[in-house]
Write a structure and sequence with these properties.
Shape: globular
Strand content: 25-35%
Number of domains: 2
Distance between the termini: 46 Å
CATH architecture of the largest domain: 3-Layer(aba) Sandwich
Number of strands: 11
Radius of gyration: 20 Å
CATH superfamily of the largest domain: P-loop containing nucleotide triphosphate hydrolases
Length: 264
């Protein structure tokens, strides 16, 4: 292994759909993310971002290829992977009948945070996320913004070195989205390796150290924003994305339209 905390090699997932047959949701995906880095997975809905991240988090089993988190392979050592990883998305659910304090205590414990340090960790998170006034209120009584804070705190309860944020701002208003991005930047400064999936170009531009453009289940390009600009001669990330996605779509259409004996 190198210095990357997360790495995949030809990570692939095939689903079967009754109407379409075999669907390649993730096709030979190669990505890597180091400590103190935010790797953005940029792609439209259905590009394969969530499928890739769910394989990394052991929720989905890869059809082929490999993936490692902190040196632990996702199929061979799923429990060790989960100990070292936190997963957050806009649809992350909370238990409505328990309090934020109980939520954080549970997730720290279930992910094997040292038992003697759990209470101190919970108190620290309550302060950090400014949950003091609501720490002992049932989650079902909290506002959507407060629930979001609890969800993020839950994700980092066991202090994992690797974090996944899957389309985290989709359901958030502008102010809550800004606060979430600030928290993610702080976590990067602490040395976390962060995978951040989004289809919002401005988020990727502002937050990500490197960007992997994902389209049709494939990684089409990876690099810093400056590297992507230099490689395409384009400035705006939206134009860069369309450049790569459009070139691939045109190539596929050409292959599909050329049959033996036809004139190209």
């Amino acid at each position: 292994m190198n210095d990357d905390l997360v790495r995949t090699e030809s990570l692939t997932k095939v689903f079967y759909d009754e109407s379409r047959g075999e669907v390649m949701a993730a096709n030979a995906v190669d990505i890597a993310c180091a400590a103190g880095e935010i790797l953005g997975l940029l792609g439209a809905n259905g590009a394969g971002k969530t499928t890739t991240l769910r394989m990394l988090s052991t929720v989905l089993r890869p059809t082929s290829g490999n993936a490692w988190v902190m040196g632990h392979e996702v199929r061979d050592a799923p429990e060790r992977v989960r100990e070292n990883l936190g997963f957050y998305s806009a649809s992350t659910a909370l238990y409505p009948k328990i309090t934020p304090r109980e939520t954080l205590r549970f997730f720290a414990t279930v992910n094997r945070y040292p038992a003697r340090k759990v209470e101190a960790r919970v108190d620290d998170l309550i302060r950090r996320f400014r949950l003091e006034a609501y720490a002992d209120t049932r989650v079902e009584r909290l506002s959507s913004g407060m629930k979001q804070k609890v969800s993020i705190a839950r994700t980092v309860a066991h202090d994992p070195p690797v974090l996944i944020f899957d389309e985290p701002t989709v359901a958030l208003d502008v102010l809550n989205a800004i606060e979430l991005r600030q928290i993610i930047a702080e976590l990067r400064a602490e040395g976390k390796a962060i995978l951040f999936s989004t289809h919002i170009m401005s988020e990727a531009e502002k937050l990500c150290d490197r960007i992997a453009i994902l389209h049709g289940g494939r990684i089409l390009a990876t690099g810093t924003l400056n590297e992507l600009r230099e490689g395409t001669g384009l400035h705006y990330l939206e134009d860069i994305f369309v450049h790569f996605a459009g070139v691939r779509d045109e190539a596929e259409a050409e292959v599909q339209n050329v049959t033996p004996g036809s004139r190209a």
